[in-house]
Specification:
Elements lengths: L3 H4 L6 H5 L20 E4 L2 E4 L17 H11 L2 H7 L8 E2 L4 E2 L13 E2 L12 E4 L25 H5 L4 H17 L4 E3 L22 H16 L4 E7 L12 E3 L2 H8 L1 H10 L3 E4 L3 E2 L2 E2 L4 H11 L5 E4 L8 H5 L7 H7 L9 H13 L4 H17 L14 H14 L2 E5 L12 E4 L24 H7 L6 H25 L15 H10 L2 E7 L10 H5 L3 H16 L3 E7 L15 E4 L7 H10 L12 E2 L21 E3 L8 H6 L4 E3 L10 E8 L7 E10 L8 E7 L11 E7 L8 E9 H4 L1 E3 L4 E4 L2 E8 L5 E9 L3 E5 L16
Amino acid sequence: MKNNSISKIAKTSLLSALVISGISWAKNPEVKETKPNPIITVNGFTFSDLNKNGKLDRYEDYRLSTQDRIQDLINQMTDDEKASMLIGIGMPGFDWAKMQFSTEKDTAKVPGSAGGTTAISRLGIPSVIVSDGPAGLRIKSIREDDSNTYYATAFPVGTALASTWNVALINTVGKAMGNEVKEYGVDVLLGPGMNIHRNPLCGRNFEYYSEDPLIAGKIAAAMVNGVQSNGVGTSIKHFAANNQERNRMGVNAHVSERALREIYLRGFEITVKESQPWTVMSSYNLLNGTYTSARKDLLTTVLRNEWGFKGLVMTDWFGGYNGFGAIMDKNVVSDVAKQLTAGNDLLMPGLPAQQKVIAEDIKSGKLSKEAININLRRVLELVMRSPAMSNYKYSNKPNLKENAEVTRQAAAEGVVLLKNNNVLPFTSKSAPLAVFGVTSYDFISGGTGSGDVNEAYSVSLIDGLTNSGFSIDKELEGLYKPFMATQKEIETKRREKEGLLATPKRLPELELNSEIVQNKANTSELALITIGRNAGEGDDRKVDEDFNLAQDEINLINTVSTAFHAQGKKVVVVLNIGGVIETASWKDKVDAILLPWQPGQEGGNSVADVFSGKVTPSGKLTMTFPVKYEDTPSAKNWIGTPAENPTSVTYEEGIYVGYRYFNTFHVKPSYEFGYGLSYTTFDISNLKLSSSTFTDKMNVTVTVKNTGKIAGKEVVELYLSAPAKTIDKPTEELKAFGKTNLLQPGESQTIVLTLNSKDLASFIPNKNAWIAEAGSYKVAIGTSSLNIKQTANFTLAKEKIVEKTNAAFAPDAKFADLKH
């Protein structure tokens, strides 16, 4: 089960942890219970008299258009009220003196929430409550003077969810997550996170989906649509190029316009167009010399004018401040005028100094009435559509039991089978399993920081195996559990000493003498070894003893494998990790490798379901596992300069991120993008194109048949190779994917994938356009980026300008993108 002594230490984000005491915060407007509004009856219609003036104002009249009502509201607001609506309410329930959520009674509407918009009680406008998180709602679960509990479901982390390649399943997860958001009184969920896995060492990769923007966009869109089907909002984040944690508030990311549009913005574009999230969260970093929260080309020209985004943009917490020194300096305020006029409508969590400057800028005319009204309309549109505005009577009783089943199924489908030497599924229960690795006894359900969840329980690997009817070797359990408890206590004290800034460290492995391991090889049917990794907000991972295995882990794998193989017995490794680790040096020493990532609160059950064959694995990698870290295309310029506290990082690899680089430059990976094994086999056949020449759209059909003896699902991946006469291009790029239903042995299913004009196009900077070149295109259907089953060709008769864009993202430093 989850050890809450550690998990409670880091329940707030790094941002809230670092803010100094002494900042004068506005009082939370939701503290007191308000009396029901008087009712006005007009021609048989009843209306709430929100401002209690005894007459029906236009903004109170729900028969009118939202825009009409909002304009009336704006007309009635004072300049100070307008300024207050453009900043948040601070962080309710946070004890700034102690740098932690207060142990005293939290009087926020939803204790543990991340903040909200400002209420205007004079006009009857409520506060819209926002709360973390991408893997489940993060609120306070235990509350003073309250015998009830408010646990939320810890769903699988982003890497695990994306590994399902199943948008229908992710939509179901979103619906379950949104149920908890709404029933716990929250209006907007701060997620999903969807930044690109530029480098495997990013500390928050566990929250994100992929190195590929198509996967990131499609999975995020499914999640947003699922959450928002409950009538609550989402905030896709962090927009954009927030691909590292170190000095995230002050690092200037130099990225070419092509790399931005094809890699780092494309996923956001897909999500905006396919799901219209209620809000977008601008990132901390500078982009080509300007904070993203102050870039009009990013937040207005591209996001709104080109993509058609209709919602609100909010900053990340304290976005626009260059580190916490700036927040502590009373003479420093973010450039609020530039942020608001750029299209960043809401400054979070909201500082009194920001409100003061906004009010002054309104009075002086630096912020025009027209500009402010644009921001206000977007904030008020959010308020108008929120459950808070309709006075939704939330139950505080979401469907936790049903949602636990959803997370169990999603986690199982996200498990990637990396290796299987005739050992899995394992069904024999005649002898105990020898379970090694401290993480087997303390499974990691999710990462730390704002991506964490306060769940009621977490099922460890040994719990899951026991629940599935397997017996666990008691001697090993007796050695590991007290060792684990001691190491957890040491880790807890370390984190308490370092405070909320502390990032998780790997627990050392128990050193077992060879005699014990040899005895287990004699008496046990199988060895299981779990390798664990955790990371979180505010710091990035390291190469040594993190990406690479530590010596104690190598020793464990060597000792156990030698002993068990000498007895003709098998060894299975379980990777309970949030992001990529090195596998090439040790994978040949073991017989099977299961990758469940950080699978949420039902993780142990989910892994046992796959281990035992109750569920056939169908997960696929959404990122490349390199042979060594140095093979990563961004390794040469990670993490920027100076390394200790980088102020500048250059994305010199350009569009060659992940498999685009490995495939094009013929760098052999340990496990390639799209890879994942099954317990059954599939035949991919009958590839057909709807036409041999492309006009506006093309359907690609393929038949998938289960040729094995076990029911299973298969993912079909469509890679496209395009002519590269006018601009450098990767050898192939993922352009569509589909997943079969659960196919019984002998059963077939036809998958239809669609290519549109933009799928053929590349961004041509000097023409400000997405252009598809004339010539021959190759469609490659595979079950990974390197395992291509069938190919077909079509032609585009003449060059096609698919989409014109506006000039944007001018470079602030000279550099050249990598070319093939």
